[in-house]
């Protein structure tokens, strides 16, 4: 007779199964989320409870130190286990997801190089026009 999987079992939402790491969960605007599994309170005052919010059960982060809701990244005791909390309160992981691909970055670099070469050629023409000698190794 098989038993249903309990907390932390292979099909558990909390454990995520064997070999699975929880993913950072920043807010949609890129700010750090106190409900993220990597968010830490250095004062050990963070507690997560379930409350009814607008008729639905939701997880809510509470601060035991002030006895109210956790203010998240704005708190002086806020930290991230993945070192992804930036000084302005945003999550570096969220910025990483929205970053450009390697191909786009390479295209931008090539465009910048072309612009620089064009500027050097223009400077060379101006120098020759005014009678200055141009070193070939400058090019």
UniProtKB/TrEMBL annotation:
Q: Which residues form a coiled coil?
A: 99-133
Q: Which superkingdom?
A: Archaea
The region called Disordered is annotated at 1-29
Q: Which UniProt keywords apply?
A: Coiled coil
Name the residue ranges with Gly residues bias.
1-19
Full protein name: Uncharacterized protein
Give the species this sequence originates from: Pyrolobus fumarii (strain DSM 11204 / 1A)
């Amino acid at each position: 007779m098989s038993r249903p999987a309990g907390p932390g079992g292979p099909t558990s939402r909390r454990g995520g199964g064997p070999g699975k790491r929880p993913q950072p969960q920043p807010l949609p605007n890129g700010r750090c989320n106190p409900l993220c599994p990597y968010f830490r309170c250095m004062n050990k005052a963070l507690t997560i409870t379930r409350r009814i919010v607008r008729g639905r059960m939701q997880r809510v982060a509470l601060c035991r130190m002030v006895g109210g809701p956790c203010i998240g990244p704005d708190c002086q005791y806020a930290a991230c286990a993945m070192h992804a909390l930036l000084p302005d309160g945003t999550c570096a992981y969220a910025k990483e997801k929205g970053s450009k691909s390697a191909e786009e970055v390479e295209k931008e670099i090539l465009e910048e190089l072309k612009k620089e070469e064009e500027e050097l050629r223009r400077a060379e023409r101006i120098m020759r026009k005014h009678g200055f000698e141009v070193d070939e190794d400058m090019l």
